[in-house]
Design brief:
There is one protein chain. This protein is an all-alpha fold and 359 residues long. The chain is built from 16 helices and 2 strands. The chain has helices spanning 2-12, 41-48, 53-58, 67-82, 85-88, 98-119, 131-144, 149-156, 160-170, 177-184, 190-203, 213-223, 236-249, 255-283, 290-318, 322-349; strands spanning 27-29, 37-39. A two-stranded antiparallel ribbon has the order 1-2. A hairpin with a 7-residue loop joins strand 1 (27-29) and strand 2 (37-39). The radius of gyration is 21 Å and the shape is globular. The two termini are 15 Å apart. The structure holds fe (ii) ion (FE2) (2 copies). The site of one fe (ii) ion (FE2) has 5 residues, from loops.
Length: 359
C-alpha cells in the first residue's frame, strides 16, 4: 500500500516534485544537535507585509520549506497583485516592495525551470511557428486529456457528498477567468483583442448582472451547500494549479504562454461541464445548481474555437515567435490540471490511503 501511495505522489507532482509532500505545520524543527525552529516562508511573508522590518530584511534570503510552502507563498504574493482590496487591505502596499519582489522572482525562477524541463519532453509540439501549426498543436494538447478519469467517475459513480467535494476543489472550470482574460488582453490588438473582449463580455453575462459567471457560481455554491476549502487545506497540485494563473498574470513577458493557457482551458471546459451535468441529473441536483455548468457546457466550445481562430491564429501570424510559447502555455495548463485531477480522483476513491493535504 505504501508503494501505491508513493507512486501516486510522483504522478501528482510531475513537474519536479522530488521532495515528499508534507503536512502544513506552522513551524517545524530540523533534526540536528542544535535544532532551530524553522518558520515557513509563507509566514515570514505574512509578517513582512505588515511592515515588520526584521521580517522584510530576512525575506529575500529565506528558503521555502517545501513545494507546499513555495506555492502558498507565491499565492500570497499573487494576492498582493490581484486579490480584492478588501481581502488584502493595506498589505497591498507591499506589492512591489523589493523584498517581496525578490522572493517572488526567486520562487518563480525555480518553478519555471521545472516547467521548462517538463516542456522539453513534450516532443514536436514546439514546432508551431505558423498560425496553422499553432492552432493544430493547441487542438492536439486539448484533445490529449480532454476528459480526465475523474470527470467520468463523477458522471457515473460519485455519490452526492463526493460530487460536492469534487466541485468545491475544482472551483468551477474557469475560476478567476474574467480577471485573467482582462490581464491577458493588455497590449494585444486587432482580432485577438476583440476576441478576448467578447470572451470577457460573456463572462460578464453579456451585461446582465444576474448572468455574470461568478454570480452563477455563487448560486451553485448556495444551492448545493458547497463548503469553502481554505487554501491551506488544498493539495499541492491544487496550489500549483491556482498559482499558474498568478504566474502568468503578473509576468508580462509570459503573455504568449498566458494566451495559450487560457485558450486551453476554454477548449477543455465544455465536455467536462457536460459530465458534471450528467452527475447532476443522476443524483437529482437542485435546479439552481444547473445554470453555471449549463452555461459553460454550451458556450465554452465556441469560446475555445474562437480563441484559436480569432486570437491564437492571427497573433501567431503577426508574431511567429509566439507560436511555440502559446502552445507551451497550453501544455503547462493541461499538465498541471491533469495532475490535479489525477490526485483528486485517487483521493475521492481511496480516502483511506492518503489525505488531500498529502497529495
Ligand atoms: Fe466562465
Ligand atoms: Fe468560456
Amino acid at each position: 500500500m505504501k508503494c501505491d501511495v508513493e507512486r501516486n505522489r510522483a504522478v501528482v507532482n510531475p513537474l519536479g516534485a522530488s521532495a515528499p509532500p508534507l503536512s502544513n505545520p506552522a513551524a517545524r524543527t530540523r533534526p540536528g544537535p542544535a535544532a532551530e525552529p524553522v518558520v515557513a516562508l509563507q509566514q515570514q511573508l505574512a509578517k513582512a507585509v505588515t511592515g515588520d522590518r526584521g521580517a522584510l530584511t530576512a525575506l529575500p534570503g529565506a528558503p521555502a520549506l517545501d513545494r507546499r510552502d513555495q506555492f502558498l507563498t507565491l499565492l500570497a504574493v499573487y494576492d498582493l497583485h490581484t486579490a480584492p482590496l478588501e481581502q488584502v487591505g493595506d498589505t497591498a502596499r507591499f506589492q512591489h516592495h523589493p523584498a517581496v519582489a525578490a522572493v517572488k522572482s526567486r520562487l518563480e525562477v525555480g518553478w519555471l525551470d521545472q516547467l521548462e524541463a517538463a516542456w522539453q519532453g513534450a516532443g514536436g509540439l514546439a514546432e508551431a511557428s505558423t498560425a496553422e501549426r499553432a492552432v493544430t498543436a493547441m487542438r492536439s494538447v486539448a484533445a490529449r486529456d480532454r476528459l480526465p478519469a475523474a470527470y467520468k467517475w463523477l458522471a457515473k459513480d460519485a455519490s452526492w457528498p463526493e460530487l460536492v467535494e469534487f466541485l468545491a476543489l475544482e472551483g468551477g472550470p474557469d475560476g478567476g477567468f474574467d480577471d485573467l482574460v482582462s490581464a491577458c488582453q493588455v497590449g494585444l490588438s486587432g482580432s485577438a483583442k476583440v476576441e478576448l473582449a467578447q470572451n470577457y463580455w460573456d463572462e460578464m453575462g453579456n451585461g446582465d448582472p444576474a448572468a455574470v459567471h461568478t454570480v452563477l457560481h455563487n448560486e451553485l455554491v448556495a444551492a448545493i451547500a458547497m463548503p469553502h476549502i481554505p487554501r491551506e487545506q488544498l493539495p499541492v497540485a491544487a496550489l500549483e494549479r491556482a498559482a499558474l494563473g498568478g504566474l502568468l498574470a503578473t509576468n508580462r513577458w509570459l503573455q504568449p504562454e498566458m494566451l495559450g493557457a487560457l485558450g486551453l482551458l476554454e477548449l477543455q471546459a465544455g465536455p467536462r461541464c457536460r459530465l458534471v451535468l450528467q452527475a447532476f441529473n443522476r443524483l437529482g441536483a437542485p435546479a439552481a445548481a444547473y445554470p453555471f455548468y449549463l452555461e459553460h457546457a454550451e458556450v465554452d466550445p465556441r469560446h475555445g474555437k474562437d480563441w484559436l481562430e480569432k486570437a491564437v491564429g492571427p497573433t501567431v501570424a503577426k508574431h511567429p515567435g509566439w507560436g511555440p510559447r502559446i502552445v507551451k502555455g497550453a501544455w503547462w495548463r493541461s499538465t498541471i490540471n491533469l495532475a490535479f485531477f489525477q490526485g483528486l480522483h485517487r483521493q475521492l476513491n481511496a480516502p483511506q490511503d492518503q489525505t488531500l493535504s498529502a497529495a
